[in-house]
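Practice problem 4.
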């Protein structure tokens, strides 16, 4: 049985669409976004960024203990891989599917969601948006800092593509008027990734140096 932490927004609905298509057994557990349930401690243990959707797979394929997954794209990929459904197995088809999945999660979703947020919540969206994005980046640094207090690298003990994807967006913190001093785990990680020979070579060979000439 898969527990789906759900509220009927596009990000919640996409998970239920997959579960309905695939026939995997599931049950919905409401996360009332209007009541702020996404911020509750028990939910944040499952979804560290405090966002719906998330799932808990109580019967993972490895036969081990229940596994919690957040991020709608990662959930869809997990469910597709678990069931062998709705993702081609050949490299081209698989990559095409993942490309369009990332396109939705990184482009269409945020653009539509943020448009809704600003259109629905403020009259003075320019002032509100600067403040909103500054606070949101700081919040996300906090999510990372918490994670890096539990694991050495972002996904666990090993340095992975998750670290590679996140590092260039953290190392620009000064340009984004952020402060890292309140995030000791994030500072520790940023320093370590920055000192990796491959990272040093990357920034030495870059035409400019985001985050200031620190290398
Ligand atoms: N990148 C995330 C976005 C999830 C997301 O933004 N969820 C919204 C609802 S669609 C949410 O939980 N909002 C509540 C909040 O921001 O406090 C995903 O794709 O799962």
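Answer key:
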């Amino acid at each position: 049985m898969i527990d789906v932490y759900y509220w009927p927004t596009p990000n919640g609905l996409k998970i239920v669409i997959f579960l309905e298509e695939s026939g995997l057994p599931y049950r919905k557990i409401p996360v009332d976004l209007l009541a702020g349930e996404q911020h509750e401690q028990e939910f944040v243990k499952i979804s560290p960024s405090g966002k719906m959707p998330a799932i808990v797979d109580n019967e993972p394929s490895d036969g081990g203990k229940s596994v919690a997954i957040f991020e709608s794209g990662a959930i869809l990929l997990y469910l597709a891989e678990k069931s062998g459904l709705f993702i081609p197995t050949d490299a081209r088809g698989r990559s095409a599917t993942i490309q369009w999945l990332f396109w939705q999660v990184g482009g269409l979703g945020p653009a539509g969601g943020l448009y809704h947020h600003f259109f629905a919540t403020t009259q003075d969206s320019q002032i509100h948006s600067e403040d909103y994005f500054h606070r949101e980046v700081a919040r996300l640094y906090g999510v990372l800092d918490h994670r890096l207090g539990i694991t050495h690298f972002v996904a666990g003990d090993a340095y992975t593509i998750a670290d590679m994807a996140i590092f260039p967006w953290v190392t620009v913190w000064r340009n984004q008027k952020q402060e890292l001093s309140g995030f000791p785990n994030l500072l520790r990680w940023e320093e370590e990734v920055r000192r990796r020979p491959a990272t040093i070579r990357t920034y030495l060979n870059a035409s400019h140096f985001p985050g200031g000439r620190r290398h």
